[in-house]
Write a structure and sequence with these properties.
This is TetR/AcrR family transcriptional regulator. The protein is an all-alpha fold and about 200 residues long. About 75% of the residues lie in helices and about 0% in strands.
């Protein structure tokens, strides 16, 4: 692995778990096994490293979403794969991470917003339309509005306002996803969902 890729990998792991402000360039250099001087030769500032790290994270998400769209398991299978992906993505993510990016790293936040608008939103609309055609999702739902609402649900979970601070980010995300899924399913879709859910959990 090239030095730059190694730095990004370690930095991203640290940012996701501890948040950005809690992780110093000294700590990243120590984790990578290099001097801080060598680290600054690759990245002139922490901001540059943050931007590069989350650009890689977004590419990973984009590839994962594209792969989910290509796999032909139907819309119910897609929902279950998305649930599994969110579980893996948010299981150890620091709840203050997105708030820090929005407040202190505007260039990185802009990239996240562009990804949400140009990629994630379109993907959700496509899945919702397929589900309406298959009879698994309610035909009367407005796919564009529901896709926007779903993305806002995800964003809101990073505001730091998880009720009472007693639930993890993962628990919060899985609950709102479960609520969203049951709001769009038809009776046929509900039956298919629980059948596939049982298979995935066995």
């Amino acid at each position: 692995m090239e030095t730059r890729e190694k730095i990004i990998q370690v930095a991203l792991e640290q940012f996701l778990v501890f948040g950005i402000r809690a992780v110093t360039m000294d700590e990243i250099a120590r984790q990578v096994g290099m001097s801080k001087k060598t680290l600054y030769e690759e990245f002139s500032s922490k901001e540059e490293l943050v931007n590069a790290s989350f650009e890689v994270a977004l590419k990973e998400d984009e590839c994962a979403f594209d792969q989910m769209m290509e796999e032909d398991e139907g819309v119910i299978g897609h929902l279950l794969r998305m649930t599994r992906y969110l579980r893996e993505r948010f299981s150890s993510m620091n709840p203050l991470l997105m708030h820090e990016i929005q407040r202190f790293y505007p260039k990185c936040w802009k990239k996240l917003e562009e990804f949400k608008r140009d990629h994630a939103w379109k993907g959700i609309v496509e899945v919702l339309e397929k589900g309406k055609q298959s009879g698994d999702f309610r035909r009367e739902i407005n796919s564009e509005i529901l896709a926007f609402m779903r993305l806002e649900q995800i964003t809101s979970a990073f505001s730091g306002n998880v009720p009472g601070g007693k639930y993890s980010l993962l628990e919060y995300h899985l609950q709102i996803l479960d609520h969203f899924i049951h709001g769009i399913l038809t009776e046929q879709g509900r039956s298919n969902y629980y059948k596939k859910l049982a298979i995935h959990q066995s």
